[in-house]
Amino acid sequence: MRRTYQYRAKISKQTEKNCLEWLELCRTLYNLALEQRISIYRQYGKTISANEQKKQLPELKMAFPEFKTVGSQVLQDVIERVDRAFQGFYVRLNQRNGKAGFPRFKSRNRYDSFTLKQAGWRLEGRYLYVRNLGRFKLFLSRPVEGDIKTVTIRRTSTGKWFASFSCDNVPAREYPATTREVGIDVGIKSFCVDSDGSQINNPEYLKQSLKLLRRRQRSLSRKKKGSNRRNKARLLVTSAHEKIANQRKDFLHKLANYYIQRYQTIYIEDLNIKGMVRNRHLARSISDSSWGMFFNMLSSKAEEAGRTVVKVPPHNTSQICSGCGEKVPKSLSVRVHRCPFCNLVLDRDINASLNILRLGQSLQASTDGIPAVA
Ligand SMILES: [Zn+2]
Q: Among candidates 361, 340, 335, 258, which has minimal Cα distance to 302?
């Protein structure tokens, strides 16, 4: 199995200076290689290959010795990036009857990473050492597993550094065998509720970060355009966005793991998320709680773990009584399901998650060749 591990990295001022130099050299090489390809293409209607460009690297190092500090594989990777950009150009040419713009040159703030392959680095515990660059102290949330194929160093727009390891042959994680099944209803009040009665709330720290973001956005809107203070305020807004995105991802990862650990089959609604966000009242809570991202994580983790995620059509799951199957109409504001037919009283979302479970199970049964029970 393939997997990429990404970690925040802390580096010294000197290492940061070296990294920025490498980024700038890589960017220069990128633009040089792109320019060469474009001008040859303009002249001959075809251009040179990545391998031919790689063969010119020693010559480049002779002419510009500053490139000697950057690892050979790092420079080769830059050539491969240009190659990928050019492959995209050919695809666009085909799609648009020969009319497509060339790949773009990279401006200073548009070039934010470089990649090492097998050589020039070593990983010791939580420290990554890169030759001619320095030491990276990694915030290892989980250990790297498998064979490391590439190491990418990236700088975010707010000046944080990350190291990511792309690995092959990552051992699949063992999950306890189980036949348990669960239905999950994503909610408005809480993040989700399941048919075993668990209610998962949006984490408090996420709400705090959202408050911080709003405060910083207001502060930004008060600053004069083009001023230094405005630039600083903008950076603060960007970093609040980054923080929220990271916290949310972390929360969703842990929640998806929770379900994958415990259940063999997980039933969820096949939500048309886009269609729902258009509804004004729901917009805020839906985009905040990012169900789409959660469902994607569930599906990919399930695939790795040999579990099953089944999407069921969202058809009256909140209106039907999970006890007797009768339809009990209710508006969005009604939080409790009360059935006049069988007297069942249940939290609205738990009732819905039970319906999702039943509907999913009957769909599964019918696709397995056994007639569905209505
Ligand atoms: Zn009922």
A: 258
* End position of a domain, from candidates 106, 141, 168: 168
Q: What pLDDT digit, counting tens, does each position of 295-337 carry?
A: 989 998 898 888 999 999 877 888 999 999 999 998 878 889 9
Q: How many CB atoms lie within 10 A of CB 213?
A: 17
Neighbours of ion ligand 1 (CB under 5 A): 321, 323-324, 339, 341-342, 344
Q: Are residues 15 and 124 in the same domain?
A: yes
From residue 176, give the alpha-carbon distance in Å to each of 73, 124, 232, 263. 42, 32, 50, 9
Ligand 1 centroid to 285 CA: how many Å?
Answer: 29
Rounded CA separation 145/162 (Å): 18
What is the count of structural domains for the chain? 2
pTM value > 0.70: no
266: domain CATH number? 3.30.420
User: What is the rounded CA–CA span in Å between residue 24 and residue 3?
Assistant: 28
CA gap 225, 231 in Å, rounded: 9
> Which positions are catalytic?
185, 269, 349
Domain extent, residue 286, equals 181-203+253-367
160-192 residue pLDDT tens: 999 999 999 888 777 888 999 999 998 767 889
In a domain, 216, yes or no: no
Q: Looking at the structure, tell me whether residues 122 and 193 fall in a common domain.
A: no
- What distance in Å separates the CA atoms of residue 229 and residue 235, rounded to the nearest whole number? 10
